[in-house]
Amino acid sequence: MSKVRVLVGTRKGAFILSADGKRDKWEVSGPHFAGWELYHLKGSPADPNRIYASQTSGWFGQVIQRSDDGGKTWHQPGTPPGETKGPDGMPKGESNKFVYDTSAESGKALTTHQWYDGTQHPWEFKRVWHLEPSLTEPDTVYAGVEDAALFKSTDGGENWKELSGLRGHGTGPRWQPGAGGMCLHTIVLDPSNKERIYIAISAAGAFRTDDGGKTWKPINRGLFSKYLPDPKAEIGHCVHHVAISKTRPNMLFMQKHWDVMRTDDAGENWTEISGNLPTDFGFVIDVHAHEPETIYVVPIKSDGEHYPLDGKLQVYRSRSGGNQWEALTKGLPQSNCYVNVLRDAMAVDSLDKCGIYFGTTGGQVYASADAGDSWAPIVRDLPAVLSVEVQTLA
Amino acid sequence: MIRVELPQHLRTLAHVKGEVQVKVEGAVTLRSVLDALEEQYPMLRGTIRDHGTLQRRPFLRFFACEEDWSHQSPDTALPEAVASGKEPLLVIGAIAGG
């Protein structure tokens, strides 16, 4: 029978929630890396036992962790599984070195970005927001970092190399941090074209490469952000999250700061699909595993009030690719609920009745085993949830 | 041997309990002790000092013999009591945050 494994990153550690295909009885493991912020964990589609985790701390900086046995044991890449010490008896493993590329000509910083006061500011590494394992190679994984850049490892997370064509393509000096910092938080790999990658940055916008990361272009045509001097600018938009329709990969959906958007041509043009949503501010967006036009968002009241409208936690589902939305409330709190759902905190499994999962800043992880019709909490009292991913296991 | 006391989270990361001891050739300074520490425990690289600049991370401080050495030059000699192993070098995380 199929199983699912939900990987939950929180402000104070990671938790792994496991169930069989019915998804009604759950085992909870954790906290792993207790006391650290776990921004993101994600399993390799090519080897489900391989899980990567971003462990970070304001005190101690960034650490990358890896499991090769489905989350039972962990090590920093570079330390062989099961070995915490090298032949000399000493622990080993260094996997947290994220060094930005410099200009080949001058040896100096590749570029600067715009600071809050409008001046130019050098790139400074802070943390890894998102880890995206390759769809086909277990040892290949991408990291989206703050300050915004994309790194790639081809040795299982031990060594990292920047794909600097993204920062270096020309618009970098106009990028600026959002309230959460200038982070590359979304990485989407095209399942039909291994050379095509989408990324999103707050607050620069969405970008695409068609050559495996060498060259990049902004893909923000159709976005309208009234807080910008030029609301239709090529870059500068605060894109919160992007999700791809795996069965129709030229179709992607975006939750922008405000506005829910859709593209049918791989990001060349975006159209607003907020329709009858009660508010189109939010962070998460995801797509049903089997129905390319069934999408999910969690509307949040406003950019100044990061909680659901009227204290009612509601997932909204559109079965028509946007514009017509229905509120999904069964099993979700409908009074006095003032949590947020952060951008990486929603995921879908690929079972026949698609399961939907999301976590809240109040520490709840909700699951629906019927594509959103009804919900139940798997856990209620975790630390604030930063990310949720799910693995569907045979 | 130089004694170094790490904060709990770094002890977990380095798979050690209690104090660690490192061997330093030549002058005993913050730089030489941290170099030796990172050589012995490579997973600590980047967690105490920045990878590139080797600057102390902002929320960590260094204490020895009841004195704050955080703002001293990394090449200043540490007290004899640390060099002789009588007293440990303390790496302390700021008492801050939630």
Entry summary:
The complex is a heterodimer of chains A (394) and B (98). Chain A is mainly β.
Beta-strand share of residues of chain A: 35-45%
The radius of gyration of chain B is 12 Å
End-to-end gap of chain A: 7 Å
The count of helical stretches of chain B stands at: 3
Number of domains of chain A: 1
Helical residue percent band of chain B: 10-25%
CATH architecture of chain B: Roll
Residue-averaged pLDDT of chain A: 94
Mean pLDDT of chain B: 93
Sequence of strands across the biggest β-sheet of chain B = 2-1-5-3-4
What would CATH call the class of chain B?
Alpha Beta
**How is the CATH topology of chain A named?**
Methylamine Dehydrogenase, Chain H
User: In total, how many beta strands of chain B?
Assistant: 5
Helix segment count of chain A? 1
Report the biggest beta sheet of chain B as strand number plus sense, adding barrel if it closes.
Answer: 5 strands, mixed
Number of domains of chain B: 1
Largest interface (CB within 8 Å) is between: A-B, 23 and 25 residues
Oligomeric organization of the protein chains: heterodimer
Strand order of the largest sheet of chain A: 3-2-1-29
Task: Provide a descriptive summary of the structure in words.
The complex is a heterodimer of chains A (394) and B (98). Chain A is mainly β and 394 residues long. Chain A has a single domain, classed as Methylamine Dehydrogenase, Chain H (7 Propeller), CATH 2.130.10. Chain A has 1 helix and 29 strands. Chain A has one helix spanning 165-168, and strands spanning 3-10, 13-20, 27-32, 37-44, 47-57, 61-67, 112-114, 120-122, 127-133, 141-146, 149-153, 161-162, 183-189, 197-202, 205-209, 217-218, 239-244, 252-256, 260-263, 271-272, 285-287, 295-297, 315-318, 326-328, 346-348, 356-359, 365-368, 376-379, 385-393. Chain A has a 4-stranded antiparallel β-sheet, with no helix packed on it. Chain A has a 4-stranded antiparallel β-sheet with strand order 9-10-11-12, with no helix packed on it. Chain A has a 4-stranded antiparallel β-sheet with strand order 13-14-15-16, with no helix packed on it. In chain A, a hairpin with a 7-residue loop joins strand 19 and strand 20 (271-272). The longest helix of chain A is centred in the middle third of the chain and has 4 residues, at 165-168. The relative contact order of chain A is 0.13. The model of chain A has no long low-confidence stretch (mean pLDDT 94). Chain B is of the alpha+beta class. Chain B has a single domain, classed as Roll (Ubiquitin-like (UB roll)). Chain B has helices at 8-14, 30-40, 80-83, and strands at residues 2-5, 20-22, 60-64, 67-68, 89-93. In chain B, a hairpin with a 2-residue loop joins strand 3 and strand 4. The longest helix of chain B is centred in the middle third of the chain and has 11 residues, at 30-40. Chain B is globular and about 35 Å long. The model of chain B has no long low-confidence stretch (mean pLDDT 93). The A-B interface holds A 35-36, 57-63, 76, 78-79, 84-85, 90-94, 96-99 and B 7-10, 13-16, 40-43, 45-48, 50-52, 57, 59-60, 93-94, 97.
